[in-house]
Amino acid sequence: MAVREYGSVQHITILGATGSIGVSTLDVIARHPDRYAIHGLTAHSRVEELAAQCERFLPKVAVVGSANAAQRLQALLAARGVRTQVEYGAEALCAVASAPECDTVMAAIVGAAGLPPTLAAARAGKKILLANKEALVMSGQLFIDAIASSGATLLPIDSEHNAIFQCLPRPYQRSPAQHGIAKILLTASGGPFLTRAVDTLAAVTPEEAVAHPNWVMGRKISVDSATMMNKGLEVIEAHWLFGASANQIDVLIHPQSVIHSMVSYVDGSVLAQLGNPDMRTPIAHALAYPERIASGVSQIDLAAVAQLCFERPDFDRFPCLKLAYDALTAGGTAPAILNAANEVAVQSFLNREIGFRMIDQLIARVMDTLPHREATTIDDVLDQDRSARELAYSYIQP
Ligand code: NAD
Ligand code: MG
User: Fold this and answer.
1) I want to staple 132 with a disulfide (CB 3.0 to 4.6 A). Which of 29, 107, 193, 252 is the partner?
2) Could you give the count of Cα atoms lying within 13 Å of 108 in the half-sphere of its Cβ?
3) Is the separation of the CB atoms in 279 and 25 below 8 Å?
4) What is the pLDDT of residues 63-98, one digit of tens each?
5) What residues does CATH 1.10.1740.10 cover in the chain?
6) Would the CB of 131 count as within 6 Å of ligand 1?
């Protein structure tokens, strides 16, 4: 591998390397072998894909979800003559995210499973590229405190938050008012059901729900986009990343997904970040920050886009968005309860155990039943996460 003329090579661990974000991250990294080397790659069960990634990127460590998956990976790597060390399980995930040889962690596991290793990276003072919004939604202030006390760096990968980050002044002190910011304008495509008759939503299938009009993503976030829970989680994510209160964050539907979000200032200025909807742009931005590198994304042709449209979201069509605002306002472990109930509901919908409209009903029922409390420790959060899952399952399979 070529040695950089300035700076040094960044050693990266990708949590969730076989997912949509993981694959896009490796695509950007492969374009810059002089800048980046891979320390660790992790996957849950897609062992063949992980073996191919190991052969190409030669990580020091690879982590999978089970002993069986580890055995299969070991055999595939031995057959290819790859000497990557194979580990499995939750502790190994935390270890590969906090290893001294690793500088940067791409947190791209989907859902609550990503919280422990992402937090381990935060506590170890790493540069964290955060795609796994659920981890921050669940742990909130505890995660922000871990970043502050270890001196870790947190850079948003979610396209909206990456856009907001790019539109904020530097340095930014986590207080919108202090910087003359009136509002954060979080844009949303509205997903596949923006214009579908509301009374037909109960009958939509998983295939229809995951068919996002503008973005190609994992199945869970695709369903979240169809319910707009994704935007709700992003409101909570924006609260923690930028220190904005619920009434300083407005969601604006923008079906073209060309403006990835905006910051509105008290003098009347609105700053926006635009580009083609391709996650390699925010990934490249965060990897190289404060420099800029090529990402493989083509320049946007604004004349071809021609029109940019905006509308306000309708809470009757998208009740999950309202539930997320309510959880943010309630505070404490309420966002962790919301997130856990949503993960169970989405998985059950994808398994065809419940209908699409049951997703919001199930979450609302769990939130109404399980009292939230202060989130003093991560154990409080994980405990509430477990209770909310159990309750949600009990409603699905009484
Ligand atoms: P995905 O389903 O494509 O990939 C998920 C990855 O997590 C896979 O590598 C999988 O092996 C791993 N994983 C799943 N369950 C696991 C478990 N229990 N333990 C350990 N690893 C596990 O998901 P994705 O679309 O890449 O999304 C990843 C994260 O990034 C999510 O939090 C999502 O909200 C966020 N995000 C994704 C996009 C996007 O465009 N895909 C955009 C913004 C944010
Ligand atoms: Mg997003």
Assistant:
1) 107
2) 29
3) no
4) 999 999 999 999 999 999 999 999 999 999 999 999
5) 331-398
6) yes
Alpha helices in 177-306 (DSSP H): 206-210, 219-227, 229-242, 280-288, 302-305
Start-to-end C-alpha separation, the chain: 57
The CATH classification number of 331-398 equals 1.10.1740.10
Residues, beta carbon < 5 Å, ion ligand 2: 158-160
Nearest protein Cα to ligand 1, atom 16: 44
* Predicted confidence (pLDDT) per residue in 301-350, tens digit: 999 999 999 999 999 999 999 999 999 999 999 999 999 999 999 999 99
Ligand 2 centre distance from Cα of residue 90 (Å): 26
* Ligand with minimal distance to 107 CA: 1
Which atom belonging to ligand 1 lies closest to the Cα atom of 221?
34
Residue type, 150: S
- Look at residue 121 and tell me whether its pLDDT is greater than 90: yes
- The answer to whether the CB of 279 is under 6 A from ligand 1 is yes
> Does the beta carbon of 132 sit less than 6 angstroms from any atom of ligand 1?
yes
In this structure, the number of other CB atoms found within 10 A of the CB of residue 351 comes to 10
89 pocket-lining for ligand 1 (C-beta < 6 Å): no
Mean pLDDT score of the chain: 96
| Tokens of residue 261, six digits | 């979000």
Closest CA to 131 of 110, 102, 152, 104: 110
Q: What's the CA dihedral at 241, 247, 252, 257 to 10 degrees? A: 0
CA–CA–CA angle 132, 102, 142 (5° rounding): 45
Q: Which superfamily does CATH assign the domain made up of 10-156 to? A: NAD(P)-binding Rossmann-like Domain (3.40.50.720)
| H or E stretch covering 181 | strand 181-188
Domain with CATH 3.40.50.720 in the chain: 10-156
d(C-alpha 162, C-alpha 387), whole Å? 32
